Amino acid sequence: MPKVIATDLDGTLLDRQGRLSERNHKALQAAREHGFLTVAVTARPPRAVYRIPDLAPVLDAAICSNGAIFYDTDTRESDLRHPIPLPVARELHERLRAAIPGALFAVETGARQIAQSEFFQQGVHFGDPWTIVGPDGDPLAEAEAVAELIVRAPGSTGTAMYALARSVELPGVSLWPWGSFPEIECTATEATKGAALAAWCAERGIGAEEVVAFGDAPNDVPMLAWAGRSFAVEGARDEAVAVATDRTAAAAEDGVAQAIEAILDLGVAW
Predict the structure, then answer these.
(1) Which of 6, 54, 263, 268 is the most exposed place for a label (fewest CB within 10 A)?
(2) What is the pTM of this model?
(3) 78 falls in which pLDDT band (50, 70, 90)?
């Protein structure tokens, strides 16, 4: 039997409204009662995790901001492991502003988001507290740390923005597009879901072969590829499906719960 269940949140464990279903809640709770450690591995900041009703009590930890932050769900303490250095973030900001017409920027510090426009609040669950500096303001000027630099371009798409941003080369930073959603997230190169989950497990003497992971998006690929067994939910992006060892039902059909229930059934080989 595995020792860790690690799951992405949006599009994998949570529904389209960002809610945790009763079945998924019960499955995670049952896993913990069987001695498993449960970890959310998400692009969300730590504050979002404990604002999703009933989620934090069924987690042992959360890895947030695409691996930049380790979050203790019991103490609500955050550990920013892989920030983008402020000078690097400023240089990246200048290059992306030149590369992407109409780009607006926000900085995720782990405790709050500093944004140029209220446009960043659209399509975001549990994203507050917000500091809006206005389109002429500099979100980096007020940031004590940079877990993520976030770019949006109204009227564009993440895919189109990423195509423009490909000309921007800056060592030590990775860019994550969001398909049709007009956003790119930038994190330190070391901050990937796979590397962060591997580090969290190594600190507890747990190897990849003892981990089951769930995901659906390109930023889940490093985690799905690293885990000994991994599930892409129905509707996952091609990149995630390509590296996952298994498939499960969509988030709307509680695919994570279905897989966990099968794993906990002693009559089913995991």
Answers:
(1) 268
(2) 0.91
(3) very high
The token pair that represents 168 in the structure block? 């921007």
Cis? peptide before 83, omega within 30° of 0: no
Label residue 36 exposed, middle or buried (CB < 10 Å: 0-12, 13-18, 19+): buried
| The length of the chain, given as a count of residues | 270
Terminal C-alpha separation, the chain? 7
Query: Would you say 106 and 133 are in contact if contact means Cβ atoms under 8 Å apart?
Result: no
- Report how far apart, in Å, the C-alpha atoms of 198 and of each of 10, 117, 149, 203, 206 are: 21, 36, 24, 9, 9
In sequence order, the β-bridge partners of residue 105 are 151
Domains of the chain: 4-81+191-264 (3.40.50.1000), 86-188 (3.30.1240.10)
Q: Are 246 and 270 in contact (CB under 8 A)?
A: no
Per-residue pLDDT of 202-249, as tens digits, reads 999 999 999 999 999 999 999 999 999 999 999 999 999 999 999 999
Query: Cα separation of 158 and 146, whole Å?
Result: 21
- Write out the two tokens for 118: 């209220």
Strand bridging mode 183-188 / 173-177: antiparallel
**pLDDT tens sequence across 79-136:** 999 999 999 999 999 999 999 999 999 999 998 999 999 888 877 666 678 899 999 9
